[in-house]
Amino acid sequence: MAELPEDQESAPERGLASGGLESRAGLGGVRVLVTGGASGIGKAVALGLSARQADLWIADIDAGSGEPLAADLGARFFQMDVAEPGEWQRLVAAAGAEGFEIAHLNAGVATGEEDITALGDDQYRRILGVNVDGVVFGLRSLLPAMAGRRRGSVVVTASLAGLIAFSPDPIYTLTKHALIGLVRALAPRLEAEGVRLNAVCPGLVDTPLISSYRSVLAQASFPLISPPEIAEVVLACMLDVGVGAGTGQAIVCQAGGGAVPYRFAGVPGPAHEEGEAAPLPPEHLSASTGAETQRLRHSDSGTAGLP
Length: 307
Hints:
By secondary structure, this protein is α/β, with parallel strands linked by helices.
């Protein structure tokens, strides 16, 4: 997972995030939600938000870790299973009409199973529920308040596994590819409503999620990314600065390699049997090419219809 994908063209921003986070240090009173906020990347983001005086809500299924963290940070803890739609309804009710201006949809799990024939039904449903449903239900629940005020930012924790074929856990890879597609497909419409949507795509991060690989990685001296480094990139997306400026991006984060928005290659468009280029499909069936919005800076370079 250490190599950048071959069709990546942009030079990385070093740091991991650069571009003035300190100059935008205050989020004074802005209500922010972090799911999976009790540990790992979510915890690091929560610490950064607390330092910036955000009105922080930490959501996690693990109350044993989440409650003391929230108490230490002066934040609100909300115990929930992001895979359950009723839990999102309960959260929205607790937040009231104000809702959230910023959200980090970060909760995620892995299977650690390379052999698909050994994958259990419950194991499969659980990872789809947390990794995919948790983001879909979260967006469905949080966006109305953001669109209503015509201002908002959502950051989704995807993975480098959402951009490459990560064979050690193909179902985890499936879920992260789904998130990248969802972010890219939704971003143009949401931007028209004043809401930005981006995905961060870390390589291997030093969190409990990689516990089953930790000893092997240590023996190989493989560099891991620290959660605070990813938190920098998430905060840049929230604040619309540096590498996080814009919308519809999948930002690759690598140990020692900085953070860079991934540039997707275009796909061939349709053609008549004679070889002549066919007309483009109706706009509502076309893939986003960036033509609709100046701020989709790193979207497709081609002008193809649905693949």
